[in-house]
Amino acid sequence: MPSTSQRALTWFGVDDEWERPRPRLGRQDVVLAASVEAVSLLALELVRSAGGLDHTDVPVWTQWLAVSTGAALLLGRRRWPLVVASLAALHMFVAGVTMPQVMGQVSLQIVYFVALLSGVAYARDRRAMVVVIGTIVLFMFAWITWQFAVGSAAQDMIDDMDRADRVGFFPPIPSAVAMTLLVNVIYFGGAIVGGGVSWRAARQRMRLQEQAATIAAQAGRLREQAVLDERLRIARELHDVVAHGVSAMGIQAGAARRVLDRDPDAARTALAHVEDASRDALAQMRRLLGTLREGPVDGGGDGTGPAGGTRTPEAGVGDLPELVAQASQEGLAVHLDVVEDPTCAATRLPRGIGLAIYRTVQEALTNVRRHSTADTVSVVVRVDESSSYAEVEVVDNGRPRHGTSGSGLGQLGIRERAATHDGQVDIGPRVTGGYRVRVRYPLRAS
User: Fold this and answer.
1) 218, pLDDT greater than 80
2) Which Gene3D superfamilies does the protein's record reference (predicted)?
3) Which domains does the chain have, with CATH numbers?
């Protein structure tokens, strides 16, 4: 079982390979140091005005310099944490020996606390941190012990108690010594523990970010691999279709050539087979190319699309009413609005953009039916020739249906299709509820 010291070293990350990033001096460091200096100087003058520095003999400018240099240490607390912590300890000792009333100001005590905390929180070399911070703490408690043992601290307490009534359960001198030690234990212990907590929290945040990046990269690779596998499968099937169709047509055409003169009926039959084979091969090629272009969708081998529409390469904005009507028959209340400026602008859209708008609506309606609890969908197509853009927006009022997460290939197809026409895509949940698919196409670029 590990000892207490081993557990403490592990908690402070002594053997941890992770190093906290070394930030550059930034605006927040300058603002912090300047703000602390301004507040500290103001507090010093308020204390002086109230008579709290009557026993301080050093010049005023020296007091100001002590406060200002203490605040300036905070500039490098994140970039050079151990150096700043060491300088803060030296500053505390020098100021405590020469001007103890100034060193005891709350503003400077906060500076020392933050410097020590930052030394623990931002140190990259954790073993060096343990050595430096441990040395600082031992030195400070040795200084306190020296003040009580051979210094004037005990005599000052005796003088103060001679002028005051003695009350309480404990003897005065031990009580004062115990209170001083308790305050310093809380002070230094709080800074060290707080710095350790800050370092561990930063390490946890970094690990979570790395895990999120790894998961996102893996998801992207899996999605790309799924797309690649699907396209390779379709390519192999397309090769088989073409090879079979061409071979069949070649055989029938050769047979027709041989019997053309002596048996015209057999030649006509062979040529009819060539015609049938070409039509069948062409139909299968169109279906496979459509699948390659659109990704996996609902429907059987008859070529029907996601919302019941036919795979037609000539589909456009004018075919949306039929698509919407078919989707409405499946339980969705779909409202279609076509906003045109000027009138009939939608009919003058380039064929590629019109088909892209049709396929976007088709895929969006399929996703609503598959993966959403929505019962109402709004489809809006905007065509503005004066501003040179065409836009399609599909918005539903539902929430994601549990257990129906898709492959993401449908949305990938929308994005690829939009990228072909330099379109801008906005897909995601809305703050007010529901889901939105919006694609804007520039008409000049088309």
Assistant:
1) yes
2) 1.20.5.1930, Histidine kinase-like ATPase, C-terminal domain (3.30.565.10)
3) 4-216 (no CATH), 227-294 (1.20.5), 317-442 (3.30.565.10)
